[in-house]
Design brief:
This protein is an all-alpha fold and 308 residues long. It contains ten helices and three strands, in the order βααβαααβααααα. Helices cover 74% and strands 3% of the residues. This is Olfactory receptor.
């Protein structure tokens, strides 16, 4: 029977991170500051890269795209969460919930693919410097970035389509601060066992696959530099180590949430904070504060702005 004959739910109630007023105020302050830092930090990176001709290499082109994705990714969940933290009734309409679910997976999976591409870029730059320009040409960079977006869209539309095929007739309470596939489909008035496994294999395998590609890239990089570590190579490895730390914070919680049997734990929503807020917050810090070229470009940009 068609979904319209079953679906009586017109909105979902988000329980959020806490029902204690004092904690809600504290969370609002922390996450508002975090969101502000994400926006300002990533916008600064985008403006710096776009205005400085010296930052025209593929690495900075990919970094600029990562900053744009981080802005989009955090904007899918944090503004809504901030509003709910100050509201007594945390309701979201059915269509809004599905839209949030779609854009969360669209941007999130696109970022996973992009991080894998960035790891490949670093491997090529360090291990194959003579062929780097030919391999990572401008055309190749655009093709890789567009493929990341296309892959993210294909993944997200699959997850969303599987979700809206289910009938929802109550209950309508989601124990989280945003709409995601697993907590939403558990509210369906139907047998969702097969759907849960299909979604887990989709999201989980993408997270695990991209993470394994990252580990493979960095492992090959370490092996190629073994025994010939110059000062430049040591600096490159230090940078890669910090990048690996950030992507681990992003991927491991995603793998934990999505690649497992259909079940839920009370602390799942706190694990989600790591990859929806903490990881995007750390990206601008790790990718810029450890990069002298970006810092020097930001200083030149600040001096130019100060003149006016």
């Amino acid at each position: 029977m068609a979904q319209s004959n079953f679906s009586q739910v017109t909105e979902f109630i988000l329980l959020g991170l806490s029902d204690t007023r004092e904690l809600q105020v504290a969370f609002f302050t922390i996450f508002f500051l975090a969101y502000t830092m994400v926006l300002l930090g990533n916008l600064l990176i985008i403006v710096t890269v776009r205005t400085d001709p010296k930052l025209s290499s593929p690495m900075y082109f990919l970094l600029c795209n990562l900053s744009f994705l981080d802005i989009c990714y955090t904007s899918v969940t944090i503004p809504r969460m901030l509003v709910d933290l100050l509201s007594r009734r945390k309701a979201i309409v059915f269509e809004g919930c599905i839209a949030q679910l779609f854009f969360l997976h669209f941007v999130g999976s696109s970022e996973m693919f992009l991080l894998a591409v960035m790891a490949y870029d670093r491997y090529t730059a360090i291990c194959k410097p003579l062929h780097y320009t030919a391999i990572m040409s401008r055309w190749a960079c655009w093709l890789l970035v567009c493929s990341c977006w296309a892959g993210g869209f294909l993944h997200s539309i699959t997850q969303t389509w599987l979700t809206i095929q289910l009938p929802f007739c109550g209950p309508n309470t989601i124990d989280s601060y945003f709409c995601d596939v697993q907590p939403v489909i558990r509210l369906a008035c139907a047998d969702i066992y097969l759907t849960q496994w299909l979604m887990a294999s989709n999201s989980g395998l993408i997270s695990l696959g991209c993470f394994l590609l990252l580990l493979t890239s960095y492992t090959l990089l370490l092996l190629s530099l073994r025994g010939r570590l110059t000062q430049g190579h040591c600096k490159a490895l230090s940078t890669c180590a910090s990048h690996l730390l950030v992507v681990t914070l992003f991927f491991l919680p995603c793998i934990f949430i999505y690649l497992r049997p259909p079940c839920t734990f009370p602390f799942d929503k706190y694990v989600c904070v790591i990859y929806t807020i903490l990881s995007p917050l750390m990206n601008p810090l790790i990718y810029t504060l450890r990069n002298n070229e970006v810092k020097e470009s930001m200083q030149r940009l600040w001096k130019c702005c100060s003149v006016f």
